[in-house]
């Protein structure tokens, strides 16, 4: 099962970081929450909360912010 990363592609800082990680990371589903609305369903979070921090689902567990980067 791949990890899922929910990120804000409209944020230039986020986009720069994620573009870097996309090049070096395998087995990750990258989900741009500004165009793909399944993030709300997957995480059960409101769009405003998803936009504020990076979120990761790994092995069924949701991580946010710094914890998401660590995962």
Short account of what is shown:
This protein has 71 residues and is α+β, with helices and mostly antiparallel strands. Helices cover 42% and strands 25% of the residues.
Note the main attributes of this structure.
about 70 residues, alpha+beta, four-stranded mixed sheet, about 25% strand
Explained architecture:
There is one protein chain. By secondary structure, the protein is of the alpha+beta class. 42% of the residues lie in helices and 25% in strands. It contains 4 helices and 4 strands. A 4-stranded mixed sheet has the order 2-1-3-4. It is globular, with a radius of gyration of 11 Å.
Oligomeric state of the chains in view: single chain
Structural class: alpha+beta
Measured on Cα atoms, how large is the radius of gyration? Answer: 11 Å
Q: Return residue spans where pLDDT drops below 50 for at least 5 consecutive residues.
A: none
Topology of this protein?
Layout: E1 3-7, H1 12-24, E2 28-32, H2 38-43, H3 47-52, E3 55-58, E4 61-64, H4 66-70
Parallel strand pairs: 1-2
Antiparallel strand pairs: 1-3, 3-4
């Amino acid at each position: 099962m791949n990890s899922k990363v929910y990120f804000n592609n409209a944020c230039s800082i986020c986009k720069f970081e994620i573009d870097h990680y996309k090049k070096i990371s395998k087995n990750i589903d990258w989900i741009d929450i500004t165009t793909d609305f399944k993030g709300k369903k997957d995480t059960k979070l409101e769009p405003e909360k998803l936009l504020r921090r990076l979120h990761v689902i790994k092995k069924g567990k949701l991580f946010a912010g710094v914890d998401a980067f660590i995962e």
